[in-house]
Amino acid sequence: MTTTPDVSAPADRSAGAAPGPRRRAGWLRARQDERAAADREFTAFAESAAPRLRRTAFLMCRDWHLAQDLTQIALAKMYVSWRRIWRTANLEAYSRRVLMNAVFDQKRRRSDTEVVLAEVPERGPGAAAADPELRVTLVDALATLPVRDRAIVVLRYWEDHSVETVADLLGVSTAVVKTQSSRSLSRLRDLLGPDLVPR
Amino acid sequence: MTQDLRALFERELAAHDPPPLGSLVGDAVRDGRRLRRRRSLLTTGGAAAGALAAVVAVAVIGLPGPGGGPADLPAGAPSPVLSAPPSAAPPALPPTAPPSAGPTCLVPPRSTAPQATVTLCPPARADYDLAVPDPPPGAAAKRLPFTPAAAMSLLQRLLPGLKIGDARALRYDRAGLVVESVVLGEGPGGRYEKATLRLGIVASDRVATGSACGDDQTCYVAEDATLVGVSDTVERGVPVRTVTAFHGKGWEVSAAVRVESPAATTAPDPAGGPEPAIVALGTQELVTLVLDPRWGLELPAEDVVRGREQFPGLPPGKD
């Protein structure tokens, strides 16, 4: 955005002007350069962040294609605000937050139409290793958790964030993060066995 | 434990074979551009819709009460109808309008048209002088396509008592322009106050006049500028007063003043709403500003030339 430098009286604005076409060309070129630079920055960021975001999204939804869509939605939303955010300190955290919002939105949209066809079987200790055919994967077990608890587990134990960061990303208190991560781990332990989810 | 669970996550992810990323980034950029375009359209449309809603609300409130006269007009008050310039033909009235009631609304000219049209009335207030300012001598001389710099130049001429700076173009394309600037002027307490003034000249396909009126448009009889909205909103806790006028050729002019001084908002002005931070930017001044016949998709040539000199930072337009 081009701005005039100072607030001054109308009479003060009598500085000489360069020829119109040259100045217009300069303004347009500067604007195009700025846009191109922002696009380059965004593309570089998106290419580096997309695999990580997609893995996180996959852990949240168990579906690579949906994870790809969610990643694309998150990146598109970041693109819209890119000129405002691209100089912020923590684009990584911002991208995680946008992704989680996309996951929550998607979950909310589909919650009325999804039908649960089967429950993940409850497993006893040691059962997981005993029968590979019936083995419950961590991703399946994660899917049994409410979406916010799933986000807490993924951000806390996969993304390796502190309790405070997770609370900040999800907009909840640290107490909620601690309580829900403890409950979620307990639930995962029940499903996968204590060997797979150590205390 | 965290490390163990993380290793478990990694093992789990390694077991799944992810599809290639493909053109994910390119698609995201394309979607982002589309979202950005839609958002900017919504912003413009939302402002116009807000102005329209305000007009409809005021029109409904201003319907004649049981006593006969307009609800909030004092006896003897001038009718809040756009007064036509001497050279223009008076707006046609619907044949059913009682002559004594006065032309309180502009109505669709094609009453037999099957579409549902909205009849918009000017705000039913006696507080504003809705006369279209007479153009100064020579104003009908050469006009050139609008530019942000020219709009700022004309704005400066229409508001001579203000210091205007930090001008920037928020939008500039074939369908309209929006310029924003910081203005300094004398406040109600005699002290210099600061406000942000945003001016928009935007083509609107929602309105048309006479035979050009389409099926899904709001139709006006008058070819002249018509005040259609005075609204107060709050942006990030700061009051903003917006005044919008439709001009006869299918485009609208709006002026929004963002009051920067909290002290100036404590005393309501006679027309309702917050007291303007700057005396010269009161509601009546804004009404007169947006009704000025010089606004348009073409602006006086002298403003185009002067704008280039006075606002070199703004896009100068096509020569």
From TrEMBL, chain A:
Residues 138-188 form the RNA polymerase sigma factor 70 region 4 type domain. It comes from the Bacteria. One of its GO terms (molecular function) is DNA binding. Keywords: DNA-binding, Sigma factor, Transcription, Transcription regulation. It holds the Pfam family Sigma70_r4_2. SUPFAM superfamilies: Sigma2 domain of RNA polymerase sigma factors, Sigma3 and sigma4 domains of RNA polymerase sigma factors. CDD domains: Sigma70_r4. GO terms for biological process: DNA-templated transcription initiation. Residues 47-111 form the RNA polymerase sigma-70 region domain. Residues 9-20 have a biased composition (Low complexity). InterPro entries: RNA_pol_sigma-70-like (IPR039425), RNA_pol_sigma-70_dom (IPR014284), RNA_pol_sigma-E_actinobac (IPR014325), RNA_pol_sigma70_r2 (IPR007627), RNA_pol_sigma70_r4_t2 (IPR013249), RNA_pol_sigma_r2 (IPR013325), RNA_pol_sigma_r3/r4-like (IPR013324), WH-like_DNA-bd_sf (IPR036388). This is RNA polymerase sigma24 factor.
TrEMBL record, chain B:
Residues 71-86 have a biased composition (Low complexity). Residues 87-101 have a biased composition (Pro residues). It comes from the Bacteria. The chain crosses the membrane at residues 40-63. Residues 71-102 are annotated as: Disordered. The keyword Membrane applies. Keywords: Membrane, Transmembrane, Transmembrane helix. This is Uncharacterized protein. It comes from Spirilliplanes yamanashiensis.
